[in-house]
From TrEMBL:
Catalytic activity: Fe(III)-heme b-[protein] + nitric oxide + H2O = Fe(II)-heme b-[protein] + nitrite + 2 H(+)
Family stated for the protein in its record: Belongs to the globin family.
Species classification: Eukaryota, Metazoa, Chordata, Craniata, Vertebrata
Primary site of residence: cytoplasm
InterPro entries (UniProt xref): Globin (IPR000971), Globin-like_OT (IPR050532), Globin-like_sf (IPR009050), Globin/Proto (IPR012292)
Keywords: Cytoplasm, Heme, Iron, Metal-binding, Mitochondrion, Oxidoreductase, Oxygen transport, Transport
Protein's name in the database: Nitrite reductase
Amino acid sequence: MEKLSEKEKGLIRDSWESLGKNKVPHGIVMFTRLFELDPDLLALFSYNTNCGVAPECLSSPEFLDHVTKVMLVIDAAVSHLDDLHTLEDFLSNLGRQHQAVGVKTQSFACSLGPAYTAPLRQGWLNMYSSVVSAMTRDWAKNGEHKTN
Ligand code: HEM
């Protein structure tokens, strides 16, 4: 797991805190962007394969449910910045479930947006890459193929 500096931890905590109750709406923006970049990801959500990237689809209960789950995991990571390694096994299991539904490592790459200052951006990138590296820890063993 990447080592985060105390400064990065502070920036991450403050910016996450500043979202207040707007975490899920921010998550929706993030996933909307992700689906625009890679519409094939929509098909991985088996309940909604014919919907598309229209706003009414992306705010459907199923997508909202997933965005809420994602935000809870990020919230857990922000709460454990001092001991991120304690989440590793949970994240690795979560990652295996994603590999099984057909998510690819590169699907996890997404921009945090230009409004972030460089150090804040770097802090989030480091934390997010720790989360993704724990989620994909065991994928190489499966050759990145879909597993069940
Ligand atoms: C790359 C984009 C992603 C795709 C396409 C994706 C897709 C999915 C799908 C299809 C499911 C199963 C259906 C569901 O529960 O809604 C799922 C479950 C879940 N995802 Fe994602 N996901 C992505 C990224 C993430 C990220 C970054 C996180 C957290 C940091 C995350 C957290 C979760 C959680 C907590 C579940 C529920 C697992 C369970 O049922 O125990 N996902 N995801």
